[in-house]
């Protein structure tokens, strides 16, 4: 696999990021259970702007030869005690260490003491990745989402950064 680089997302990358999100929605919608509709470019521009201007938050992209192949978004709470993370990697580039590098870059920044993420109980590859990277299951969290007329369990997993 070619070398990839990690950078902070720029507004001009909103189209490419939206395309990746929509591609993943088309491929396996329950990976993105928080999204009900396609993401438009204006919404993505606003989201990148919001994260880049919010203290303790970050939007990172992974690229190969100027082509975005994945990203991590992280939003911290008001007190910067904890934050919520999401990771998306294009299918063709999964299992190549990209998610690990994105997470490592987030951890270098140490903006919070706890990183939270929600994952569907059926998304075993992501659960395995999180467990391998010291995320633990919050057993008091109880949430379901409706997806294709069925209820799916959502897990909350967390990792301390200190």
Please outline the helices and strands.
Blueprint: E1 5-8, H1 14-27, H2 41-53, E2 58-64, E3 67-76, E4 82-89, H3 98-109, E5 114-120, H4 124-132, E6 136-137, E7 143-147, E8 150-160
Helix pairs in contact: 1-2
Give the helix level as a range of percent: 25-40%
Give average pLDDT, whole number.
Answer: 87
Structural class label: alpha+beta
Count every beta strand, where a strand is a DSSP E run of 2 or more residues: 8
Task: Please tally the helical runs, counting DSSP H or I stretches of 4 or more residues.
Answer: 4
Low-confidence spans? none
Query: How much of the sequence is in beta strands?
Result: 25-35%
Measured between the Cα atoms of the first and last residue, the distance is 32 Å
Shape: globular
Main pleated-sheet profile: 8 strands, mixed
Compute the CA-based radius of gyration.
15 Å
Order of helices and strands: EHHEEEHEHEEE
Describe this structure in words.
The protein has 162 residues and is of the alpha+beta class. Helix content is 30%, strand content 33%. The chain contains 4 helices and 8 strands, in the order βααβββαβαβββ. It has helices at residues 14-27, 41-53, 98-109, 124-132, and strands at residues 5-8, 58-64, 67-76, 82-89, 114-120, 136-137, 143-147, 150-160. Strands 1, 2, 3, 4, 5, 6, 7 and 8 form an 8-stranded mixed beta sheet that branches. Helix 1 packs across helix 2 (41-53). It starts with a strand and ends with a strand. The relative contact order is 0.16. The model has no long low-confidence stretch (mean pLDDT 87).
């Amino acid at each position: 696999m070619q070398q990839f680089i990690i950078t902070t997302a720029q507004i001009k990358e909103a189209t490419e990021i939206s395309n990746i999100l929509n591609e993943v929605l088309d491929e396996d919608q329950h990976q993105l259970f928080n999204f009900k509709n396609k993401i438009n470019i204006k919404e993505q521009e606003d989201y990148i702007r919001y994260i880049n201007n919010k203290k303790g938050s970050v939007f990172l992209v992974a690229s190969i030869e100027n082509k975005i192949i994945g990203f991590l978004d992280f939003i911290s709470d008001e007190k910067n005690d904890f934050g919520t993370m999401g990771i998306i990697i294009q299918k063709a580039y999964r299992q190549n260490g990209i998610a690990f590098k994105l997470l490592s870059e987030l951890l270098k920044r140490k903006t919070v003491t706890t990183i939270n993420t929600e994952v569907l109980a059926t998304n075993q590859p992501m659960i395995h990745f999180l467990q391998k990277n010291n995320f633990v299951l919050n057993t008091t969290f109880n949430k379901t989402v409706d997806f294709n007329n069925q209820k799916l369990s959502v897990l909350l997993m967390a990792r301390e950064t200190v």
